[in-house]
Every structure is written in structure tokens, then in C-alpha cells.
Amino acid sequence: MTAPTSTTPLTPYATLLGFTRYVDRTGPTKATFVGGLRKQRASRHGFNPHGQFVKALKADIAFHTGGTHLAQVADLVKPRWRPLYEALVPGATTWLRSLGEPMGVDLAQTRDALAMLGDLPVKINPHFGVRYADGHAEAVRLHFDEAPPSEEAALATLHLMARHMDAVLPHAEPILVDVRRGESHRMPTDTKPDQVEQWLAGEAAAFRAIWSTAA
């Protein structure tokens, strides 16, 4: 006896990473990318190779150890992931040191939020937050790719985080950290949120349409 096949349609959905990678694409590559996301969602397969790296970085912030955990993490992962970790550690260490004295920075708890762009749900999930001795805080999203984040991807990430900061980490500033280069990206001061919102709404509508045709 064969198991019944589910006829429940897969509702369109994106993570912050998936959606910002989508807006960074052009032409036919958008459809190919969304089709891949849909298949991954249907199979429920997914693996995060950066998990131990993020834990090490958070540990260095939480325990004020200035990079000790990062320095050791490449030796603790499976051999297949060592080249990736070895490529990430120098930039992450540079960024960590840019925060100032280790004792002057603490780890802050962030929460995930669900953004609605029209009818498209997008999961807003920073990696962690940092809080400084003067009280101000930042919600941190990490960018691991070999290429630096494009202006569009960075703007979409920062805007969506800022849009839901009351739920993510109240009163914090969103930042996108380019891990390999150790650089922080912040919302440009001349950004017009209404224009960004219109742009993202259009991208979300197209995402939904592609998702449906890929069914």
C-alpha cells in the first residue's frame, strides 16, 4: 500500500537570506532560484554549514575572549568544512576587534520575526545582537558568501530588519557584517524607506508568481 500523496499546495515563503539572494538576481536566474527554493522546501532538506562558526563568534562576544573561540573553531569541524572556516576566521576576527575592548561588548538576545511583503511571508532572522557599554545595541546579520553583498541585497536586508526591529531587538540598529572582509554595512543615511518598501513589494509579488508557476 503506497502512502497517500499530499495535495496541500506549498505556500510561498522565504527566509531573509533567500529573499535577499532573490532580489540580487536578474532575468531568468530569478525563476531558477525560486524554483530551487521551492524544491528545497518540498524536500525539507537543508543544512547550515556555518552553525559552529556562529557559535564560536557568539562565545567570543559573550565571554569577552577576543577571538579565542574563533581561533580554535576550524580545528573542531569536519575536514570538509575546514577550508571554509579558515577563509572566514580572519575577517570575523577583524570585525570582532573593531567592536572595541572585549569587556565593553555583550551578546544580546535577538528574536525572529515574520515580515509580510504583500502576501509573501519572509522570516527575519538575525544571527545575534551586540550591546555596548553605553547601552546602544546592534542586531547582526552575517554575510558569508565569497562575493561581498551587493548594494541591493544589503539594502533589502537592512530595511527588513529595521522594519521589524521592535520584535527583533528593540531600539537596536541593524547591521550586515561581511564576514570574509570583516566589514559592517549600515543603512545609508539618504535611504527613502517608502521607495525601498515599494521596490520590495514588487519583488515579493514577482516571487509569489514565480513560486506558483513552479508548482
Description:
The chain is of the alpha/beta class and 215 residues long. It contains eight helices and eight strands; from the N terminus they run βαααααβββββααββα. The chain has helices at 16-23, 28-43, 51-62, 68-73, 82-98, 151-163, 165-168, 193-213; strands at residues 14-15, 105-108, 113-117, 120-124, 128-132, 137-143, 173-178, 183-185. The strands form two sheets. The chain has a five-stranded mixed β-sheet, with helices on both faces. A hairpin with a 4-residue loop joins β7 and β8 (183-185). α1 packs antiparallel against α6 and α3 (51-62) packs parallel to α5 (82-98). The longest helix is centred in the last third of the chain and has 21 residues, at 193-213. Residues 1-7 have low confidence and may be disordered.
Distance from N terminus to C terminus (CA atoms, Å) equals 26 Å
Structural class: alpha/beta
Helix count from the secondary structure assignment:
8
Specify the biggest β-sheet.
5 strands, mixed
Coarse shape: globular
> Beta-sheet strand percentage?
15-25%
Name the poorly predicted regions. 1-7
